[in-house]
């Protein structure tokens, strides 16, 4: 039973850290379907992964051609 307690204890430490990291700094999301074609998922048959940089968005000056995600 000791491995189970270690597993639960590790999850209780790792899960809040992961949630805080993805809410504040970076998150990986998928893009599928036709909504972002032809920039992402050009042929419509596969799924693209994107890294969302949430930290820089607060101070970044957006320029034409950049992709912005509202969550």
From TrEMBL:
Membrane topology summary: Single-pass membrane protein
Subcellular location: Membrane
UniProt entry keywords in alphabetical sequence: Hydrolase, Membrane, Protease, Transmembrane, Transmembrane helix
One cellular-component annotation, GO: mitochondrial inner membrane peptidase complex
Broad class of the protein's primary localization: membrane
GO biological process: protein processing involved in protein targeting to mitochondrion; signal peptide processing
GO molecular function, one term: serine-type endopeptidase activity
Listed PANTHER family: MITOCHONDRIAL INNER MEMBRANE PROTEASE SUBUNIT 2
Protein name: Mitochondrial inner membrane protease subunit 2
Organism: Elysia marginata
